[in-house]
Specification:
This protein has about 160 residues and is α/β, with parallel strands linked by helices. The chain has a single domain, classed as Rossmann fold. About 30% of the residues lie in helices and about 25% in strands. The protein is built from 4 helices and 6 strands, in the order βαβββαβαβα. Strands 1, 2, 3, 4, 5 and 6 form a 6-stranded mixed β-sheet that branches. Strand 5, helix 3 and strand 6 form a beta-alpha-beta unit. Helix 1 crosses helix 4. It is globular, with a radius of gyration of 15 Å. Bound molecules: flavin mononucleotide (FMN). The site of flavin mononucleotide has 23 residues, from helix 1, strand 3 and strand 5.
Length: about 160
């Protein structure tokens, strides 16, 4: 039987909400990145993180860099992110610098390919409310991810079912 899992790294809960919806659409297991099980048992691995200073979160990067390559070798990996402004250039930079989602996906892809994963072309970037304090009120882009964006995440999960046939 083919198995799928969604693994997320979330600071304030936005990425977790997106992960829950992807997992629901896909019918996958859902785990927080610190509780990653033995990935050899899975055929499709969906990995997501929040974005800090134009990068995948440092916790996500560290976790992946320490992973035994046997865990991801030859596996289909799907990436998603939740960022304050996924379609904006990095803070303080102009359009020539590119946009957050492209820059972050490139870094994630490199980290995952270093571990032998096969990166799926499907990827998802969802906006998330910026919180200066972890569980404090939103300070920018309030209200994200909204209901429509969470439905988008669920549909994204459903669309990944083709990897399990
Ligand atoms: C210290 C800090 C730095 C951030 N840097 C960026 C950034 O460079 N680009 C961006 O789009 N969002 C940035 N964000 C916004 C978060 O990525 C966004 O709020 C995300 O939805 C948080 O997800 P979480 O609730 O799962 O932790 C930053 C947030 C914090 C707290």
């Amino acid at each position: 039987m083919t198995k799928s899992i969604v693994i997320y790294n979330s600071r304030g809960g936005n990425t977790k909400k997106v992960a829950i919806n992807i997992a629901e659409g896909l019918g996958a297991e859902l785990v927080q990145y610190k509780k990653m099980p033995d990935l050899k048992d899975y055929d499709l691995i969906v990995l997501g993180t929040w974005v800090l200073a134009g990068n995948p979160s440092p916790h996500w990067k560290k976790k992946i860099s320490k992973l035994d390559p046997e865990q991801l070798k030859g596996k289909n990996a799907v990436m998603f992110i939740c960022a304050g402004g996924p379609d904006n250039p990095p803070l303080g930079q102009g359009p020539e610098a590119g946009i957050i989602k492209d820059l972050v996906f490139e870094l994630m892809q490199k980290a995952l390919e270093d571990k032998g994963a096969k990166i799926a072309k499907e990827r998802l970037a969802i906006p998330g409310t910026f919180r200066f304090f972890r569980f404090g009120p939103g300070t920018m882009d309030k209200g994200h991810p909204n209901e429509e964006e969470l439905q988008q995440a669920k549909k994204f999960g459903e669309s990944l079912n083709k990897y399990l046939k």
